[in-house]
Amino acid sequence: MKNTGIEIITSVKQLLEKAGKKIVIVPHENPDGDAIGSAIGLAEILVNYGHHVQVISPNNYPGFLKWFTSEINIVIYDNYKKKAKKIIENADVLICVDFNDAKRAARLEKHIFEFKKQKLLIDHHPNPVEFCDFTISEPTYSSTAELIYDVAKLIGFEKYINRNAAEALFTGIMTDTGSFSHNISNPNTFSVVAELMKLGISTKKIQSNVYHNFSASRMKLLGYCLNEKMEVFPELRSAVISISKKELEQFNFEPGDTEGFVNYPLSINNIVFSALFIEKEGLVKASFRSNGNFAANQFSQNHFEGGGHLNAAGGESKMSLNKTTETFKQLLGQYKHQLLETII
Ligand code: 5GP
Ligand code: MN
Prior knowledge:
By secondary structure, the protein is α/β, with parallel strands linked by helices. It has 13 helices and 12 strands. Strand 8, helix 10 (245-250) and strand 9 (273-280) form a beta-alpha-beta unit.
């Protein structure tokens, strides 16, 4: 761990040392496999140690993340605001996982700020905002899940990492690396995976649950997007897919159905930048993926009020879907030089 000094580890150890504490774990809004996997994995470890843990997610999460063996219950803030508020108010410790700015917790943001006892952040996104008492931020890690494994080890909690925790942490690593194809800059990722496998998880089952669990209408929506909606700009090494609310409804959209769509254009020869725009209630959600040294997070921060990782970022736009897509295409022209110079 490059950024985390021994004094932080010692403080975190002290914070979690006395069993029986009430701990709340919060992932980011629209949680992905790493956010949910990290939250459940960490919750399992802390429960095994003897704490009382509740995971509170800002909003609902996709069906392909609802199969864990773990019985840790996740309270959805948007559905149970009063209950969630009460749990947070009564907690002794708040732990934020997989986000670098309280804003990413959406409607939970104000409760994070109002929480006056100790707060801990464990995350791997670059440039964290200081909103917690203790920040463990390691952007060289593939995933927050990998980082949680190492933190647990460093604070002496290794023996509390059980099979349920391993299953959840493996899911986080697997999904944030696109099944071990990107975001891996260090052999430690595979060392952690090896340790998790020793705990008896079925990687085959996890793969099937996450990736082979789609509805037929989601597959048709993907086909439609690639066939009818994808625009490719080979001269700018870029591609874009935009989907309206109406189109989503035609394909019986369920949350999570468009997960991964943004990656497809990157498998086209010589494409280094891909964008996906999805029309939501009152805004357009943007996803960006890049290859090589083209900074998707910088692009998103500059033009779409977002951020993320070098090669995987997100943001939003308050313009209409059409206007957003047109603006994006115009921006590509401004980035022509960078796009052409991108080294994969
Ligand atoms: P996705 O495209 O899968 O929604 O997000 C890709 C990455 O960008 C994730 O690491 C996610 O945390 C980050 N991200 C997604 N949406 C936003 C956003 O609105 N703001 C910021 N700062 N990061 C985002
Ligand atoms: Mn992550």
